[in-house]
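fold-stage: in
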Amino acid sequence: MRISRQARWCRRPASSRHARAALEEIWKTIYTVVLLTITAVTGATGRNRMAAQAGHSAVMTCPHRTRATMVTWKISPKIGGPCTLGFRADQNLVNRTNCSDSVKSEFKPEQFYALEIQQVGMADEGNYSCELVNQEGNFHEMYQLTVLVPPRLSLYCENHSNPVCEAAAGRPAAEISWVPENNSTTEIDSHDNGTVTVLSRFTAHSTNRKTVTCKVYHATLNETMSTYCSSCKHPLCVQHSKSCLALCSSTMTGISDPRKIAAGAMQLS
């Protein structure tokens, strides 16, 4: 009986519990309404990182909203002054301020008022933002554009024996590896225009009659190149070729008959 009385004594009135639950529901409703109001008034903000290859086109879109009354693209490039493109639906009017001819927009709703940068160059790198206004509020979409530059590739023999792989004037810097794997030295040269040249030297002690492969990895390409370099310094050897290797091989093996040397070169060429 004591336990029963104590339980009844600790039990709160039903009316108090109902009042507290009702108050919590009211606060949840108010909180939800406030969030929806903030979203409707200020819109949603998106931030996107975008990369485009130099010489190609880049396309960016506004927030996916309908019945826009006004659309404004604002461009802040790293090089040059700001550019603004504005569109008013009620007048079907487009205004351009300090924008180059490569910056285009037809402000079509079905294309989400897309902005196109034709023939992207280093000067186009920067921040792009679209503000769209409709009856629901203001909505924003922001982009950070990075321009990629494919490197110029070359593979050659230095000092008649050492293979050298070069990825010149790329952005970002390329990565170079060798097959077979061996010690290599790498030089990196940064240029004023933001591009980087990477030069890798294959440092095997001897590469005679041995093919080596250079692999170049970059955001715009993956390339594989192969060559073989000879340390042969035969006086008749003008180019690094199989004929050159034949001349070297004959010299090292003691063959002096020109006819045999020529026959060996023809077999390998």
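fold-stage: in (second)
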Amino acid sequence: MNWRPVLDVPHLPPVDCWRWAPASPRPTMEETGEKNGGFDVLYHNMKHGQLATKELAEFVRERAAVEETYSKSMSKLAKMASNGSQLGTFAPMWDVFRVSSDKLALCHLELMKKMNDLIRDINKYGDEQVKTHRKTKEEMVGTVEAVQALQVQSGHLQKSKEGYHTKCLELDRLRKEGAPQKELEKAELKSKKAAESFALYIEKYNRVGGEFEQKMSESAQRFQEIEEAHLRQMKQLIKSYSHSIEDTHVQVGQVHEEFKQNVENIGIDILIQRFAEQKGTGKERPASVGFEEYMAALTPEGGKKTRAKAFRIPGLGKRDKEPDSTDSAVPEALNSPLEVDDEGFVIRADNTQNDILSFLSI
């Protein structure tokens, strides 16, 4: 019995919407296909679902490894940025690179975790799938027996048909050759028995074929339900895979947008100002310095006082002047104790205040 896939073409359903149906309400031998292998095709197609589940798990596992490797690479970049030179005005920009790289590493690490969770879901579905297939195999034992019975009856029917045709050809040959009546009657008897045998096998085949058609129809419907549930679950797993990647891409886009905004916010003036604040040596300007005259010490070591030497103008000294009654007062003034003001000048006594040329310097 040949079973062909039928697609509801007018409504153009999704690819996973398909069903198996008999080619005709009452298939003939020419329509059954060789050895009635339709059941084996459907059964192995169901088993191929387990292979698809395992391969999907392997694919997601490989994707998780890729995300883990990418996360580690971004962590290395973040470490490289943190070790960037802190000299110069560009140094603060390395913090922007470090933060961005750390966040990207976390995004891909989170995606790796989601992939691992998805792998567990796939494996869980694979275990349920194995149980479903094992149960289905037990339920379809009757269909397997019906297929085997039909195959046996098909072989008997074919042999009986060939025997019947052979006897008919032999009878026709004897009639054409004008064989004796006895031989003709004998050939007719053999042809009649062959026809009866052939009719009997046709009846058995039709009865077995009816049982096969019923069992196969039920099994085909069950295979369809299993296949639809399998494809529905696989698409749901793929949807979870797609959503995880989509969420990560949104997060990565936000990190890049934040990176771009941080670069824009740190202007050239800010970089220069930070450098000045960190490396500045002070804000006070040096004070103006004036000329200071050298002043000899008023009191030498030992606490002894020295008498200042009088400042004299040439031509006006005692030796250059004529003796006067006031000359005797000068030595007395010099031998008297001297008083010095804050600026280092000697203060004369009252009797010599009018002599402006008698100031002494220290």
